[in-house]
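User: My instructor asked us to take a sequence, write out its structure as tokens, and then describe one feature of it. I'm not sure where to start. Here is the sequence I was given:
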Amino acid sequence: MSWRPARPTGTRAGDPAGPGAGAAARGRLDPAREACGALLREAAERGDAYGRGLAEYEYGHVLRALGEAGAALRHWRGALTALEGTDAPVLHELRSLTQEFSPDGRSARW
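Assistant: Let's start with the prediction itself. The structure tokens for your sequence are:
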């Protein structure tokens, strides 16, 4: 799975894209959110932990772009659990993403 959702601007306060950009981003990200949900269901039906891990990873990026940092963290942690011990090229990034959060789920970066 090499598809990565666009990381749009305008989804958070103070973003350089300005007012109204968040609504446009949400319109592009809603289909990505649905696609990630479908991938997660398919991976679960097949018992495919690797595929589930990659889908969780992508879903986390979509959720973060939608401003849902806590939900993004939950999916990234799930991805890390599913992919640990594999040769998945996203492991380094997943470790970094999950380490940027405090224990209460708040990000130090956003």
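For the description part of your assignment, you could build on this observation: The first helix runs from residue 21 to 46. Try explaining in your own words what that tells you about the chain.
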